Amino acid sequence: MALTVKNILDRVQFTLQDTTNIRWTQTELLNYLNDAQREIALLKPDATSINTNIQLATGTQQSLPDGGNRILRVLRNMSSAAGSATGGRAIRQVSLESLDSQDPNWHNPTATGLSKHTTIVKHWVYDEMDPKTFYVYPGVAGNAFVEIVYSVVPGVLDYSSSGSSNLGVNDIYGNAVIDYILYKSYVKDAENAGNSQRATGHYNLFLSAIGQKTQLDTVDSPSGNKQVG
Question: What is the pTM of this model?
Answer without folding.
Answer: 0.80
